[in-house]
């Protein structure tokens, strides 16, 4: 019989915003009983809101029950039992924190957490859990933790506090995007369920507005080629659109998605200006000023240094009137009538 010691605060958050502890429980005894105690207390305090999708009312809990359960099971299965300490579960005002003694199993890092094959630190305990139905045989608990968060319109889990001594996962709480959750539900109801990679990209686009294939490759941990395929699938489904040309191409949520999320104004901000508009802004500047520098273009068009450089160089090739003068930091561009 294996004993487990778990600190847990749970219907209002166990820790108030001012740091006062409302509940502080420590469980001793058979592991299965301790796990059930924790789940019962979690369920009793996990409030729900609703969003209406057509004729359906979709419950949106504060936290995904499945995601929390998998995070808790992972903490029990992968903790280092040779070290002192406890599995620690803390319910803050705006997040859940789950920690366990011992860092990631050998070979698992923050950069391959989503793609590394299952590697339980305690294989016999993992087999017991599988036989009694506490975990499934696929061993993809991490996927469920991520999907549980994103499906309900919340930020992805955060493992960045993990070190060699402890694995720490933060499940962000706070206000969720009900419209984003409704969008995911609609896709599932229409038989077009989204993969974890697709959810990760959509979630990132909803918060960061833009993403490149390289950034998507790092996000999904599967590299640029796989990310490009995922992005193109999302484009075909009308959820994402590409912006810009090769070399400066990025992706953003489609206008249909922004409309569905009731965020049409955000679409305009995310899309920014197209290349023709940017060129016209530069030309309009040169109608008033004798010259323009890269710094001027960066400020005028809200572009990065490399984007401003590409725009100016492309304009010198496209417009004979556009002249590049000076060298190095003294480089500027002028408009000369031919």
Please describe what this structure looks like.
It is a single chain. The protein is of the alpha+beta class. The chain folds into 3 domains: about 5-170, Heat Shock Protein 90 (2-Layer Sandwich), CATH 3.30.565.60; about 195-270, Winged helix-like DNA-binding domain superfamily/Winged helix DNA-binding domain (Arc Repressor Mutant, subunit A, Orthogonal Bundle), CATH 1.10.10; about 275-335, Winged helix-like DNA-binding domain superfamily/Winged helix DNA-binding domain (Arc Repressor Mutant, subunit A, Orthogonal Bundle). Helices cover about 45% and strands about 15% of the residues. It has 13 helices and 11 strands. It has helices at about 30-45, 65-80, 125-130, 140-150, 180-190, 195-210, 215-220, 225-235, 255-260, 265-270, 275-290, 295-300, 305-320; strands at about 5-10, 25, 50-55, 55-60, 85-90, 95-100, 165-170, 240-245, 250-255, 320-325, 330-335. The strands form 4 sheets. The chain has a 5-stranded mixed β-sheet with strand order 2-1-5-6-7, covered by helices on one side. Helix 2 runs antiparallel to helix 4.
């Amino acid at each position: 019989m294996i004993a487990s010691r778990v600190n847990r605060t749970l219907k209002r958050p166990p820790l108030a915003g001012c740091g006062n502890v409302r509940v502080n429980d420590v469980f001793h005894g058979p592991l299965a009983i301790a796990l059930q105690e924790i789940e019962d207390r979690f369920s009793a305090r996990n409030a729900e809101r609703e969003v209406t999708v057509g004729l359906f009312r979709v419950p949106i809990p504060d936290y995904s029950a499945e995601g929390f359960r998998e995070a808790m099971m992972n903490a029990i299965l992968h903790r280092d039992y040779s070290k002192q300490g406890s599995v620690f579960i803390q319910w803050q005002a705006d997040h859940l924190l789950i920690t366990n003694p011992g860092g990631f199993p050998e070979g698992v890092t923050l950069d391959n957490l989503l793609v590394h094959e299952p590697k339980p630190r305690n294989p016999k305990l993992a087999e017991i859990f599988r036989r009694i139905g506490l975990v499934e045989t696929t061993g993809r608990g991490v996927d469920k933790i991520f999907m549980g968060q994103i499906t309900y319109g919340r930020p992805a889990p955060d493992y960045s506090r993990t070190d060699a001594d402890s694995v720490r996962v933060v499940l962000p709480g706070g206000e969720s995007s009900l419209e984003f959750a409704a969008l995911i539900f609609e896709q599932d109801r229409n038989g077009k369920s989204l993969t974890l990679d697709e959810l990760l990209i959509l979630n990132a686009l909803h918060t960061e507005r833009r993403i490149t294939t390289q950034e998507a490759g790092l996000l999904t941990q599967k590299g640029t080629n796989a990310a490009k395929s995922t992005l193109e699938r999302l484009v075909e489904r009308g959820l994402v659109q590409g912006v810009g040309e090769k070399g400066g191409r990025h992706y953003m949520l489609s206008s249909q998605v922004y409309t569905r999320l009731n965020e049409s104004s955000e679409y305009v901000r995310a899309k920014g200006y197209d290349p023709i508009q940017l060129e016209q802004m530069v030309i309009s500047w040169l109608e008033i000023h004798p010259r323009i520098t890269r710094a001027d273009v960066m400020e005028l068009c809200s572009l990065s240094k490399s984007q401003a450089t590409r725009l100016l160089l492309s304009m010198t090739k496209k417009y004979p009137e556009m002249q590049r003068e000076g060298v190095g930091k003294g480089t500027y561009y002028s408009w000369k009538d031919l």
